[in-house]
Description:
rod-shaped; single chain; mainly alpha
Amino acid sequence: AEMEMNDVADRISELSTQNANLSSQRRQLESSVAAMQADLDEAVAELKNSEERSKKAGKSCLGAASRLASG
């Protein structure tokens, strides 16, 4: 019976260690995901700004072309 209790205690210790390691890995992954989400949000914002600048530049070019054609 004492040997069984020792085996159970060893198994509990192993599982506790595994659990702690998995919890640590989960926190690291969550941190990585949060960083990737922030990078994605930044990239999306940059894309939107770039699209707006492109639209404005296109309108400006059309206006200049129209003025040149009529001038």
